[in-house]
Amino acid sequence: MNYRHAFHAGNHTEVFKHAALVLLLDHLRQKPKPFFVLDTHAGLGLYDLKSPEAQRTGEAEGGIGRVLARPGRGLASYRAAVEPFTAAGRYPGSPAIAAAMMRDGDRLGACELHPEDVEVLRGHFRRDRRVAVHHRDGYEAMAALLPPAERRGLVFVDPPYESRDEATRLGEALAAAWKKWPTGIYACWYPIKDDTIRLAISGALAAAGVENAIRADFLRYPVDGERLAGGGMIFINPPWRFDEQLERVADEWAELLALPATGRKVVRRLGAHV
């Protein structure tokens, strides 16, 4: 699996993923104390919806394109975060969304290992003192930068799944980070063709003793092991009643994006091991 975000920016699974991110940031903003966001695989930060990569797949039309075609529908805070960018023909990645929602005292650590991508990322945030861009491995950054001085915040893990051992590395790094910072909020995304990636991640978390977790899958197609059916997320230490919020958003997004009933699914697993 190789999920290069430039080809998939603004598609149905990106819209759901970023709506979940917005819900978590909304929660962190409810208290006046500052928070820290670690984005382990920040990518380019912004994506041109008219780029050759985006045009090749056309996936944004079935995602953010449908959202923009229905003004006033969907999560209001998500719209507020993304519409200033989409008005200019661009779709914001997770670091741009986080920065758009952060306050003056909040911080973002955005990590990107690709040498060309990290320079583009630096260009976007060069004038933003709240944002530190790191040219480093995101999993190594989780070990080095946690826990943050703020003691409250979010770790957002969204790798491209380029290597065969990506899911194993992610699960191990996430479990180790949780042990170092057990009160932090963690959100990781995975593509769904089959259950292989999810089981590798959830297995590592279960072995570490993680209990307070939610799993959510958002699918356009049935899972058949061949094509990209959609994406899923695992959340550790989600806010109170976050599962209910997420399910409402998933239902509204599924209707807004006109997902077929055969593909749409949200799964929640609470309490016991992931």
From TrEMBL:
Pfam families: RsmJ (PF04378). It is an enzyme of class 2 (transferase). InterPro entries: RlmJ, SAM-dependent_MTases_sf. Transmembrane segments: none annotated. S-adenosyl-L-methionine binds at H18, H41, S94, E112, D137, G138, D158. GO terms for molecular function: 23S rRNA (adenine(2030)-N(6))-methyltransferase activity; RNA binding. It catalyses: adenosine(2030) in 23S rRNA + S-adenosyl-L-methionine = N(6)-methyladenosine(2030) in 23S rRNA + S-adenosyl-L-homocysteine + H(+). One of its GO terms (biological process) is rRNA base methylation. The active site is at D158 (proton acceptor). Keywords: Methyltransferase, RNA-binding, rRNA processing, S-adenosyl-L-methionine, Transferase. Its EC number is 2.1.1.266. GO terms for cellular component: cytosol. SUPFAM superfamilies: S-adenosyl-L-methionine-dependent methyltransferases. PANTHER family: RIBOSOMAL RNA LARGE SUBUNIT METHYLTRANSFERASE J (PTHR37426:SF1). Belongs to the RlmJ family. Specifically methylates the adenine in position 2030 of 23S rRNA. This is Ribosomal RNA large subunit methyltransferase J. It comes from Stella humosa.
